[in-house]
Amino acid sequence: MKKTPPDDISFREFVALMASLIAMVALSVDVMLPALFVIGEELNAANPNDPQLVIGLFFIGMAIAQLVYGPLSDSFGRKSTIFLGLAIYLAGSALCLMSWSLPALIAGRIIQGIGAAGPRIVATAIIRDRYEGRPMARVSSLVMSVFIVVPVLAPLLGQGIVAISHWRMIFWFLAGMAVALFIWSALRLPETLAVADRKPFRLKPIAGAIREVLTNRLSLGCTICMGLVFSSFLAFLSSAQQVLGEAYGLGALFPLTFSCLAIVVGFTSAVNSSLVMRYGMQRLATIGVCTIIVSSALYALWFALVGVPPLAGALVWLAFSIGSIGIVFGNLNAMAMEPLGHIAGVGAAVVGALSSLISAVIGSQIARSYDGTALPIALGYMACCTFALAALWWSTRGRVRRVRTGGDAA
Predict the structure, then answer these.
(1) Measured between alpha carbons, how far is 34 from 399 in angstroms, rounded to an integer?
(2) So where are the chain's domains?
(3) CA-CA distance, 276 to 138, in Å (whole number)?
(4) Rounded mean pLDDT, 71-78
(5) Right CATH number for 11-395 from 1.20.1250.20, 3.40.50.1860, 3.40.50.880, 2.10.10.70?
(6) What are phi and psi of 47, to 5 degrees?
């Protein structure tokens, strides 16, 4: 593990700040979930599934923008790029506050996604600047275990705002969060990319770096795997209020139930941060993906043979499937970034953009197939994670042998 300079930010504060920057995405999504039904009614959504676009198109904006932020951070430094993203996020929040129709709100959400991509992708590059290998996987898992507080509290916060005020107050809250992160980063975050290590912002070097990422089997395979796993998770996020709140009749208890599922992810992330140093990233990621496939297959089989599973059966399936995300993501992200230390900014951008784009396109389609039951989501988990397992196997062929001979440390 790289040593932290004496006058540098402490390890705990570093993890907390990185978690907060990355958690902008989770907060921007999860706080909206309890408000989707109200938004659809007030803005006259033509289709009951149309408010899901408030979630799905946020990820589309984020996915595309990441390709820009990575090279910008490699050329102009990490902190200034974070500030740019936060400023764009504030502009998107303002448009959402003034939205007069669902398309206008969605446009504001796309701009918010473009802005949120900056802190999210640059935080990943900063972690890679300071750590590598299994220590990087440990830090990534700790970051996830800290930032999991956001999806635990965000639905409850959104429900509270909708209960006592107007849903537009959610965007006042998100704008305030962006301002707070701007001040915290400005005062406490050190610049991790020295001026001497910065690369000119020219298209040819950037294209070459992107090509290097796309032709590296480990990085590309793990990125595709992340995108496929998150596709199914995004499908659940987009339709969670419908699945749990409506199909299973939880109603006002939906935010609390969702928060309990988020706690499971936080627990598995914390466990992974300890296990990864002993068992390695590849093995744990494989176990996590397989767990999602098996639990989803059992739910679908129950549905086919007996009928709609009871709420308890659905919660057990979701606990195993969503909980495995805490094991899969930190390891896959660290494995994808491992060969990219010399181009961490562009590497983080391409890894983040490609995985987000895959998940947004596939996940939105799965969510829009919601038919009043959770079966489309379970089948989506099965299909996406089966292909994800194939991508992981393809990307890591031969790596176990190298580990045993003292080479690769995954």
Answers:
(1) 44
(2) 11-395
(3) 7
(4) 87
(5) 1.20.1250.20
(6) -125, 140
